[in-house]
Structures
1.
Amino acid sequence: MEPDQAAVAFLLAEPIERTRELIGLLDAGAVDPRSSRARVAQQVTLGRASLDRTMSLLRAWRGDNDNASQLYRMLRSLLDVKHLVKQQNTQADLVWTGHKPPGSSLRSTPPVIAEMLDAAERHVIVLSYAVWLGQARVRSMLDRVVAARQRGVQATFVIDRNYSPDSTASGHNLEQLRTEWPNDAPRPDIYSWGDDDDRIAKLHAKVIIVDRRDLLVTSANLTGHGMSGNLELGARIMGRPAEQAHDHVLDLITDGTFVKEPW
């Protein structure tokens, strides 16, 4: 099989996460087309079929010393194409917080959010009306945004600046982010919205957008009850709507609707 055909066959057979893992190993020099089967198996835990496919790919690319970098570039390009195709094909699943009857196929909100944030590579955008980050399930979400920020992912929070649990003050959400975000972690960007002339008006959207490709629209706030206790329904959407949501938020930042808050 020709080298480029082997790369295409590998990408079609293996999940995106496996391709991304191999790209990382090639980039770090941990494996190359001359690596032995034992060496590859030592670097990553693979099932027999997946290891066979990986070795077939590497063997097809054996040649001069520059083949590792060529294979790296080929896989990166193919992965970008695969992401693009996947974005054009909308996929949607329902997400639920709270009691589920036996046999329910709906996934729970916290693990879906964790999955989305752990896969982030470039951007994370979070919108919420009420923010309580000290509670355990929400703290886990925040820790994942922090981890994403530490690996170079851009993080943006958009919150309602007038929200207050007792309706007598404002700024609760800003204070939560400033207090709970670790001092030694790169900071996120924080934007807010509030209508001082209409105190009933709210930034009521609860949204997470990852890499312009993965979107969660939910009734759940970033609170303990939003993650566990309330009955909340959301939809996780992958594809064109995620692009639209990402671009819409950025447009609202650009036109000044969302105001950047100092840290």
Note: The first strand starts at residue 91 and ends at 97.
2.
Amino acid sequence: MFDPVTLKLNVDPLILGALKEDITSEDVSTNAVMPTATMGQVDLIAKEDGILCGLQVFERTFGLLDETTSFDMHYEDGDSVKNGDLIGTITGDIRVLLCGERTALNYLQRMSGIATYAHATAALLEGTEIKLLDTRKTTPNNRIFEKYAVRTGSGNNHRYNLSDGVLLKDNHIGAAGGVKEAVTMAKAYAPFVRKIEVETETLKQVQEAVDAGADIIMLDNMDHDTMQQAIDIISGRALIEISGNVTKEKIDGIKDLKVNFISSGALTHSAPIMDLSLKHLHAI
């Protein structure tokens, strides 16, 4: 759940932007059939199994349109629901319920889908000491929601944005002239409290990253045997992250490796939405 400050400063403007995208002047359909205020209720129903995430954002969407809208929710973020479960009931001006329906569901379906996918992926790492991480491969202007959904689904967040940590990728290394040069420059520039992570694609780069004193070494798009050789080279002198086209289906093939982290862009860019619906709208 987002704290009140984060909600007001960082979440509300994004929800309002999404509502403005959907309503540029008026909701013509709603105004045509509901010209005056009428109180009503509608049910939020799960149409498939999954992990719920985004109920606060769902509620906030309607609340920003009309703060008198009320909610009777039977579940919380992180709860598992089954197809057909009644998640809750929303009560308010029918015009508000109709205007906010699609935007509220878009957030809830997207966030619940990510939480569900992250939960299933993290479950595959149970019994290991490996932490599952997300990436910055998020939908523009939706990172705060998507990274929260990963946490709700038992995953962990990598750096939030470019200001959040030092990660020297292939193009940074190319710009600096090599791994050693890039790490040396990063150590001179970044505050001492920042860990320095280096993306490596070859065993030569792994050795250079170790020699340069990198704190975290990412093994990017390497096959299993090469990663094992890289782990032997590092030999505990840095934390190790596996990355590169990691999907849920590939976890079993790499979870035997003695690494600290596995990062997966698929958690946010490839998770399907969870099917949820608002049904049985009626006047009260």
Note: The mean pLDDT is 97.
3.
Amino acid sequence: MTYILLVLEFFKIGLLAIGGGLVTVPFLFDLADKYDWFSKQELADMIAISESTPGPIGVNMATFAGFNAGGIGGGILATLSLVLPSVIIMIIIAKVMGKYSCNVRVKDVLNGIRPAVLAMILFAGLELGKIVIVGNTEILFLAVIIAMMRIWKKSPIYYLCLSGVLGILLKTL
């Protein structure tokens, strides 16, 4: 039964997560509420790890949740279930996009989807903020990093590494 739930839930996420890995986050929060496959704290930790390592958030989280729920088989099933809708959709789009790419209705649909994707990403950020920002230290840390990013236009990798080092130093003090 667990395997069936993994396939259904992650196939649904893969089908509806238009716009990339961060769009999967609201769906993953729902899973954290529905099942004991992972906690919201584990989700926040996994997002932090996924943002600083190769691979999409959704795939990493599907593998993690599937493994927690059903071992190696669960991890494989959840990951394949998340990716399969995208593969199917991309094959269909590749076949028909050349024919309909100039269609006004197709352009209107794509323009309508963009704000929804942005809203889902903002929602994910707010939900993560509730978990991660628990005190004044985190708020100050966030403000300093944002200010640094605005002043010094460096690679995001630089700020991820800097934040990781500062996080370690702050925990050891």
Note: The mean pLDDT is 83.
